[in-house]
Each structure stands twice: as structure tokens, then as C-alpha cells.
């Protein structure tokens, strides 16, 4: 009988960490997670989503804690999802973002190299479409040049290059998923999709009057997080490690998102309900992203199943249910 496979997930308390822990638990994996702080309030949430998960206290800036988690869990697969992930915040906290989102990934790579010199462990790095920043070509593919526009994007580009380097220099099975925006009812409330859908739910129930946003013209390739964690897993099941763009291939503006969200609760003209606050504009913006996931489709057999017109109602409905 084959031995039960095991995985260690950093960032297990985040949106993707929860979906991935759920996915891997469902596949029969022994799931381990690195969790920050001595009493992280999200511990119970992780345990309810992925029963049997084993949590190890640690921090991506603390090399020893990563080495310890690796030693105790001895995983077949490591998914590095932990990061300071909010782009707007990264401008206010550039050094910390660099330490967690950039150097943190290197800490994990180096800890794996020391723990497993025989390259048995397979590694996944959560790279991002934010690395494309001021886009040099449309749609963006695995070979599109990076031009990050934030401390977050720059830190992710560093982590991405280090992942490629550990693959090429040491023969590590290290893959990067260059994921475009993906959303869900588990998305953090600071991100625009969840901010909008939660506000629309509250406005529709008479609990809030208006919504304040920043740049309404930004365009994003928005997919569903449940689909995207499936792609992460598929990458680590390949014989050869590689980098993959994961995207829907469709782009929409924040305005279009507002049309769909307010439209779902019967509000056609949302303009009187939405204010723009210049304080929410970013020092440098990523204006337009759209990904070409051909490589993922051909090599992994992966395709986005839930597109924005179905995703937005799902998020609004979920926010309404939470308020009930
Ligand atoms: P979230 O912001 O929801 O989760 C981030 C996770 O990182 C949380 O578990 C958080 O823990 C953890 N974390 C933060 N700081 C540290 C630290 N110092 N040490 C250890 N863990 C830490 O992000 P998502 O789930 O949305 O994204 C997962 C990954 O994918 C991130 O790396 C993100 O940058 C990347 N990504 C996300 C995309 C998206 O659209 N969602 C697209 C492309 C890439 P805590 O709960 O304790 O704060
Ligand atoms: P993003 O996501 O920066 O693309 O990074 P976010 O939802 O924060 O912003 C998307 C776009 O919406 C515009 N916007 C606003 N954004 C927020 N958060 N709040 C607002 O009020 C608002 N108004 C307009 C932004 O300017 C931006 O153009 C996400 C994160 O998950 C990253 O970790 C990940 O790498 C990328 O997606 C791909």
C-alpha cells in the first residue's frame, strides 16, 4: 500500500491556504501548516475547514521556525503561500513586505535545500501577475517581461527569480504559479472584490448608505480561488517543474465589477452610491492585466471554470447570508 502523502502550506490561514488545505485533505494528504503568532485567532477556522491539519507556529522571517516545521512534518510537497499580499499596504510597509514576501520565499527554498539535499521535496511558489506591473505585452504569458509597480510586485519578482534559480542551480522540483487575481467569499475584506460585495450586501439590506473606492478604471483578470488552488496542486504532480500563468483570459474594470454586483441586487445606477476617495489611489498603479494560460491548459489540463458573471453573484449572496 502506498504511503500517505504529506504537504506543508505556509499562509494556511489565508484565502488560498484554506482552499488548498481543503483540497489536499480531500485527496487524503496529511496536511501541515505554518501559522503565525502564539495564539492566531484563525487557528479554529483552519481546523474546521481541514480537519486533522497539523499546525506549526512559525514566521517566514524566522528561518529556524521554517526549518523546524520542515523537520517535524517531513513533507512531500511545500506550498509557499505566505506573504504580505495587499499591494496598497506594501507601499506603507516596503521593508517588511520585502522581508516576508521576498526573502521569506528564499528562507523556505534554502530550508528545503538543507533539509532535503536529494530533491525529494516538491516546491510551489505563489508568484503573481503583479510582477508584470506596467505591462510590456498583452496578454501576459510566462515569458512576458516583469515591470513591477509596487514593493509587493518587486518582492514577488525576487521570490520568483529565486525559485527559478533553485530549480536550475540545485535541480530542485520548484514551480511558480503566476496567478492572476482570484477571489471568493473567503477573500480578505481589504481587497476590492470583497469590499464591493460586502458593501453591496449591506446596502441592499439597508445597513450601509455608500461605498468609497479608489481607481474605478483598473482592469483585472479575475478568477475563482477554488479553481486556482487546483492548478497549484497539478503543477506539483508534473514530472518536470516549470512556471505557469493561471488566468481566465478575460479582463474587466472595477466599474464592470460594480455593474455586476449592484445589478445582482437590482440597483442599475450605482453612481450615487459610490464615492471616489483620492487617498485610496496607489502611488503607482497596475492599470490593465489579462493572462494567457495556454501553457497550463496544454500541460496541466487546467482551465478556469467560474468566470466573473457567475463569481460576483456568488460573492454577493455569500455576503448577504453572512449578515443574516
Ligand atoms: P492572504 O492575504 O489571504 O493570505 C496571506 C497569508 O500569509 C496569511 O495566511 C498570513 O497569515 C500569511 N502571512 C503573512 N505574513 C506572514 C509571515 N510573516 N510569516 C508567515 N505567514 C505570513 O493571501 P491569498 O491567500 O489571497 O494569497 C496566497 C498567496 O498567493 C500570497 O502569497 C499572495 O501574495 C499570492 N497571490 C495571490 C493572488 C490572489 O489573487 N489571491 C494572486 C497572485 C498571487 P495571517 O493570517 O497570520 O496574517
Ligand atoms: P490587487 O488587488 O492589487 O490586484 O492585488 P486589489 O483587490 O487590492 O485591487 C484591485 C484593483 O482595484 C483597485 N481599487 C481598489 N482596491 C482596493 N483594495 N480597495 C479599493 O477601495 C479600491 N478601489 C479601486 C486597485 O487600485 C487595483 O487596481 C491582488 C492581491 O491578491 C495580490 O496579492 C495578488 O498578487 C494580485 O491580486 C494578483
TrEMBL record:
The highest taxon in the source lineage is Bacteria
Q: Which residues form the NAD(P)-binding domain?
A: 8-313
Cofactors required: NADP(+)
Q: Please give the coiled-coil regions recorded for this protein.
A: none
What this protein catalyses is:
GDP-alpha-D-mannose = GDP-4-dehydro-alpha-D-rhamnose + H2O
Instruction: Identify the EC number(s).
Output: 4.2.1.47
Sorted UniProt keywords: Lyase, NADP
At the top of the EC hierarchy, this enzyme's class is lyase
Keyword Chaperone in annotation: no
Q: Name one GO molecular function term.
A: GDP-mannose 4,6-dehydratase activity
| One Pfam family named in its UniProt record | GDP_Man_Dehyd
Protein's job: Catalyzes the conversion of GDP-D-mannose to GDP-4-dehydro-6-deoxy-D-mannose.
The UniProt entry's sequence similarity note says: Belongs to the NAD(P)-dependent epimerase/dehydratase family. GDP-mannose 4,6-dehydratase subfamily.
- HAMAP family linked to this entry: GDP_Man_dehydratase
What name does UniProt use for this protein? GDP-mannose 4,6-dehydratase
Q: What is the native source organism of this protein?
A: Nocardioides imazamoxiresistens
Amino acid at each position: 500500500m502506498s504511503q500517505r502523502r504529506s504537504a506543508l502550506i505556509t499562509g494556511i490561514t489565508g484565502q488560498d491556504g484554506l482552499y488548498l488545505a481543503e483540497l489536499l485533505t480531500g485527496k487524503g494528504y496529511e496536511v501541515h501548516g505554518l501559522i503565525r503568532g502564539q495564539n492566531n485567532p484563525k487557528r479554529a477556522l483552519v481546523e474546521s475547514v481541514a480537519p486533522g491539519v497539523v499546525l506549526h507556529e512559525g514566521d517566514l522571517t524566522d528561518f529556524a521556525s521554517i526549518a523546524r516545521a520542515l523537520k517535524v512534518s517531513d513533507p512531500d510537497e511545500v506550498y509557499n503561500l505566505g506573504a504580505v499580499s495587499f499591494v496598497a499596504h506594501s507601499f506603507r510597509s516596503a521593508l517588511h513586505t520585502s522581508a516576508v514576501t521576498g526573502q521569506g520565499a528564499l528562507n523556505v527554498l534554502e530550508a528545503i535545500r538543507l533539509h532535503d539535499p536529494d530533491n525529494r521535496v516538491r516546491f510551489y511558489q505563489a508568484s503573481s501577475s503583479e510582477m508584470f506591473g506596467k505591462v510590456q505585452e498583452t496578454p501576459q504569458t510566462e515569458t512576458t517581461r516583469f515591470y513591477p509597480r509596487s514593493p509587493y510586485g518587486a518582492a514577488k519578482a525576487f521570490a520568483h527569480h529565486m525559485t527559478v534559480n533553485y530549480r536550475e542551480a540545485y535541480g530542485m522540483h520548484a514551480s511558480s504559479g503566476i496567478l492572476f487575481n482570484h477571489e471568493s467569499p473567503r477573500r480578505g475584506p481589504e481587497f476590492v472584490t470583497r469590499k464591493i460585495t460586502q458593501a453591496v450586501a449591506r446596502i441592499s439590506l439597508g445597513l450601509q448608505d455608500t461605498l468609497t473606492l479608489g481607481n474605478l478604471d483598473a482592469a483585472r483578470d479575475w478568477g475563482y480561488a477554488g479553481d486556482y488552488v487546483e492548478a497549484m496542486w497539478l503543477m506539483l504532480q508534473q514530472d518536470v517543474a516549470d512556471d505557469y500563468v493561471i488566468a481566465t483570459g478575460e479582463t474587466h474594470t472595477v466599474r464592470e465589477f460594480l455593474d455586476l454586483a449592484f445589478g445582482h441586487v437590482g440597483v442599475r445606477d450605482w453612481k450615487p452610491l459610490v464615492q471616489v476617495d483620492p487617498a485610496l489611489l496607489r502611488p503607482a498603479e497596475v492599470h490593465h492585466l489579462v493572462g494567457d494560460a495556454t501553457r497550463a491548459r496544454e500541460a496541466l489540463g487546467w482551465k478556469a471554470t467560474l468566470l466573473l458573471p457567475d463569481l460576483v453573484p456568488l460573492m454577493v449572496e455569500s455576503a448577504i447570508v453572512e449578515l443574516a
